[in-house]
Amino acid sequence: MTQVYIALGANLESPRQQLDEAVIALSALAEDAEVQVSPYYRSAPMGDVEQPDYINAVACLTTQLAPIELLDALQTIELQQGRVRNVRWGARTLDLDLLLYGDEQLSLPRLTVPHYGMKQRSFVLVPLSDLAPQLILPCGTPISALIDDNLRAEVQQLGADH
Ligand code: ROI
After folding, report:
1. Model-level pTM?
2. What integer pLDDT is reported at residue 27 of this predicted model?
3. DSSP state, 135?
4. Whose CA is nearest to atom 9 of ligand 1?
5. Domain that holds residue 44
6. Does residue 48 have an active-site annotation?
7. Residue 162: inside a domain, yes or no?
8. Is any ligand 1 atom within 6 A of the Cβ of residue 47?
9. Which CATH number do you get for residue 72?
10. Ligand 1 center–CA 32 separation, angstroms
11. Confidence check: pLDDT of 162 > 60
12. Model confidence pLDDT, tens digit, residues 49-80
């Protein structure tokens, strides 16, 4: 049984609803169907492609799935929610990124864990630290050392009713 963290992002076709649906789908992968979800955040798109703002969040769950099985399950949920892989760094109905798989550091052809970009992305770090303020990353860095007010100011927390 492994505790995992997953980043959620959407910027097309009712993004908040996409995240709500994704959380329900994630509960099917979780022990006792339990998923903890951070607040939702609005964030400006990272990258050069012009596109709508994103809604982002992070989910935490405990699962029996092996890393690649979990990756397959996340990609199935993305496809079920209409994800078409076309433009690199372009808009998407749903993106599910495996951030952390326990304390493991994995470098597989299809999967790098911890997620390669997570330490640079406010829309990942801020919701992750909401869920796990004491978290120490597998590299030994505490999440608290990666967060400051400037980073927090890059994302806008949405109301509790999402
Ligand atoms: N930008 C933001 N703000 N949020 C995302 O989830 C996100 N996802 C992406 C790219 C296109 C890199 N930009 C993003 O895949």
Report:
1. 0.95
2. 98
3. -
4. 89
5. 2-157
6. no
7. no
8. yes
9. 3.30.70.560
10. 30
11. no
12. 899 999 999 999 999 999 999 999 999 999 99
